[in-house]
Design goal:
The complex is a heterodimer.
Chain A lengths: L1 H13 L3 E5 L2 E7 L2 H10 L14 E7 L10 E6 L8 E2 L3 H16 L3 E11 L2 E6 L6 H9 L4 E4 L2 E5 L5 E2 L5 E4 L2 H8 L9 E4 L2 E6 L3 H5 L6 E10 L7 E3 L2 H11 L3 H4 L1 H13 L1 E7 L2 H9 L6
Parallel strand pairs in A: 2-3, 7-14, 14-16
Antiparallel strand pairs in A: 1-2, 3-4, 4-5, 6-7, 6-8, 6-9, 9-10, 11-13, 12-13, 15-16
Chain B lengths: L3 H11 L9 H13 L3 H10 L8 H32 L6 E4 H7 L13 E4 L5 H10 L2 E2 L5 H10 L6 E3 L5 E5 L13 H7 L1 E2 L6 E3 L2 H15 L5 H18 L3 H11 L3 H15 L5 H7 L6 H14 L12 H16 L2 H18 L8
Parallel strand pairs in B: 1-7, 2-5
Antiparallel strand pairs in B: 1-2, 3-4, 4-5, 6-7
The chains are: A alpha+beta, B alpha/beta.
């Protein structure tokens, strides 16, 4: 079934667009770019919905940027429902552009959640939330966790329900940067990692496909249990240090995309989350040592 | 010819209960068109008021609720901005009239719920313009990012100061001294607007325009002066205002038409009523049309204007676009500039602007 879809994928992308079920969102993606068809075929086949899916949350198109410049410097442009919110990027970065553009769509419209810039993984439906600035190591850590028995919920977004305080999975390819790419490839040879895009604003970027077990449970929410703020610290000792809850709340608010849109509701949700979670800081230096520290997190009561 | 999605949107705006019959596949284009027209949050507010949100399928309902939250945040910020303006200007003698979206919000008018807005617009008497700018400057509002030419252009030819940006909050405040540029073809008398303005309950020295003037200003802004990016949204404002004022005051229509002629704004009002009725079934008594007939454009002109506005007022989304939509928008853009100032002023200005934009490389436009 999935194979039949793959063979047909470039045509579907070129014509009516391919609806992808990405966690709580349905993204209808159209593109004439072979690189996009290849990456979607690699990363998203399990998430393809029938072409006649009646409602899509986002209508996205990725195509060559028009203009004569395309002759000597081809570029890709991201369109959300006909309008193009960003500058074009080199054609070789079309797939990262799709992923970044999708982040933007979600951050602009997903206000039924408190959206936190964080990587999320779960063990027995107990979720570990790792908010962090770019470069803190959250993508590397969450990729490694997902490849060592944890369930991947998200690489970029913790989607915290405002109704029940649970986390909604948003399993998407994990964006590995620079040294993290060979690190994950060597440590986990079974990892499915796509083509590297070089010289992006974040350096070299390659995406790792979420493990099938995580995709299979894409609709199963998880209960927040641990809030760990990683920080890349070469020479750090990879131990978890307890973090005062007030400090955790302020740092969390800073990492939330829509804290100000939600106002009081956002504060309540963030406060409840911090209240419920064990909060810690992680000076991440060595992947194996940090992994064992995270694996050793005691179950929530 | 209205595309189905726009038809659904217009029906939902005027008879929200009709959304019950919509399929999930209808909601997809409907929300996209509503979003392009800045009407998604408005739709949310209407459905919420009538207790109809539960009838909307879960996926589109989530988008409506999200849009509602964005609007709620904007409203909270706007109230805060008005408070700040009040702090800066409330204790003076000169009146401060709150205009447009902020006025609807502060006066609690029925077009306010779910209304999105960008800037705060206020109007002060021309004689108080300088002191107003100084008082606002002292509180952190300043005209940033405009070169000398822009500054001179605004101060010499426009009906407002260059937009003021608050240095900390980055919010934008437009300070007008009348509702049209002094060079415009129509010349409403601002003193009459100030004289009729109504105090805003609970605020010292803050006012909003009288009902008839509020409608006339909105109509003028839409059909004489403004760009049509949010044309349908502005038409929906007018529709809500007209229904509200006419219901509360049986003499409203008469006052409105009399005031329109008195203020030299009968033509924009004529268009507002014509297209309000066409798009949103605004209930307008036939006698009002009869009274306005001297303001009706001659038939050949009206045919042209119909062709332009019927296209230009539709949401700027490709679902609603026909082969001539782009041309119509361009013509309306040129028209709005033409109406704003005589050609001897306009041409040099546009040439200058075009050169500047080209130099700044701002030309890069996304295509449809």
């Amino acid at each position: 079934m999935a194979v039949a879809v793959s063979a047909d994928l470039p045509r579907i992308l070129r014509t009516q667009g391919a609806p992808l079920e990405i966690g709580p969102f349905i993204v209808r993606l159209s593109s004439r770019l072979p690189a996009i068809a290849e990456s979607i075929g690699l990363h998203y086949t399990e998430q393809l919905l029938p072409a006649d899916t009646p409602f899509s949350d986002f209508h996205v198109r990725l195509d060559r940027a028009p203009g004569v410049r395309g002759v000597w410097r081809p570029q890709a442009r991201f369109y959300l429902d006909g309008s193009s919110p960003f500058k074009p990027l080199p054609l070789s970065q079309a797939f990262p552009l799709f992923e970044w553009g999708l982040n933007w769509c979600i951050a602009q419209h997903g206000h039924h959640y408190l959206m936190i810039h964080a990587a999320v993984a779960a063990r027995d439906d107990q979720a570990l939330i790792m908010p962090g600035a770019p470069g803190a190591g959250k993508s590397t850590l969450v990729a490694a966790l997902a490849l060592s028995g944890w369930r991947l919920l998200s690489d970029e977004f913790a989607l915290l329900s405002l109704e029940n305080g649970l986390l909604t999975p948003l399993p998407r390819p994990v964006s590995l940067k620079n040294q993290a790419i060979p690190l994950i490839r060597e440590r986990f040879p079974e990892a499915v990692v796509g083509r590297s895009a070089h010289e992006t604003t974040k350096g070299t970027v390659a995406h790792m496909k979420p493990p099938s077990a995580s995709l299979a449970r894409a609709q199963a929410p998880a209960r927040p249990a641990w809030l760990v703020f990683p920080r890349f610290a070469p020479g750090g000792d990879d131990t978890l240090r307890e973090m005062p809850k007030a400090h955790a709340l302020l740092t969390l608010a800073d990492a939330a995309f829509n804290y100000s849109v939600l106002g009081g509701q956002g504060f309540e949700a963030a406060a409840e989350l911090v209240d419920r979670c064990a909060c810690a800081q992680l000076d991440y230096a060595d992947l194996d040592r940090s992994l064992s520290a995270l694996n050793a997190l005691p179950d929530a009561p | 010819m209205m595309p189905r999605a726009l038809d659904h949107l217009l029906t939902a705006l005027t008879q929200p209960a009709a959304v019950e019959s919509l399929q999930l596949s209808d909601w997809d284009p409907l929300l996209r068109v509503a979003r392009a027209a800045s009407l998604e949050a408005r739709l949310h507010a209407l459905l919420e008021e009538q207790g109809l949100l539960a009838r909307v399928p879960a996926r589109p309902r989530r988008h409506l609720a999200a849009a509602g939250k964005v609007a709620a945040q904007q409203h909270q910020r706007m109230r805060w901005e008005v408070e700040q303006v009040h702090e800066a200007l409330g204790a003076r003698e000169a009146p401060v009239v709150i205009l447009k979206g902020a006025a609807y919000l502060m006066a609690d008018l029925p077009c306010a719920p779910g209304r999105l807005f960008a800037d705060l617009d206020i109007m002060v008497p021309r004689r108080a313009l300088e002191s107003t700018e100084r008082a606002l400057f002292a509180r952190g509002w300043l005209a940033q990012g405009h070169d000398e030419y822009d500054q001179t252009y605004y101060r010499r030819w426009m009906h407002e100061l260059p937009p003021l940006t608050h240095i900390r909050r980055k919010s934008v405040l437009d300070v007008h001294h009348t509702i049209l540029p002094p060079t415009a073809r129509l010349a409403p008398d601002p003193d009459k607007l100030f004289a009729a303005a109504r105090p805003l309950k609970g605020w010292c020295n803050l006012l909003v325009l009288a009902p008839a003037d509020m409608v006339l200003h909105s109509a003028t802004h839409l059909f004489h002066d403004g760009e049509l990016e949010n044309g349908l949204r502005d038409l929906a404002d007018l529709d809500a205002l007209l229904r509200h004022f006419a219901e509360r005051d049986s003499g409203f229509w008469e006052q409105l038409t009399a005031r329109a002629f008195e203020m030299d704004l009968a033509r924009p009002l004529y268009y507002a009523l014509r297209y309000g009725r066409e798009f949103l079934a605004t209930p307008i008594p036939d006698t009002v049309y009869a009274r306005l007939s001297p303001a009706r454009p001659a038939t050949p002109l009206l045919v042209v204007m119909d062709a332009l506005f019927r296209r230009g007022l539709k949401p700027h989304h490709w679902i609603c676009d026909g082969p001539l939509s782009g041309t119509a928008r361009w013509c309306l853009y040129v028209r709005s500039h033409y109406l704003r100032m005589p050609l001897r002023l306009l041409l040099p200005h546009l040439v200058r602007k075009a050169i500047k934009e080209r130099r700044a490389g701002k030309r890069e436009q996304p295509d449809p």
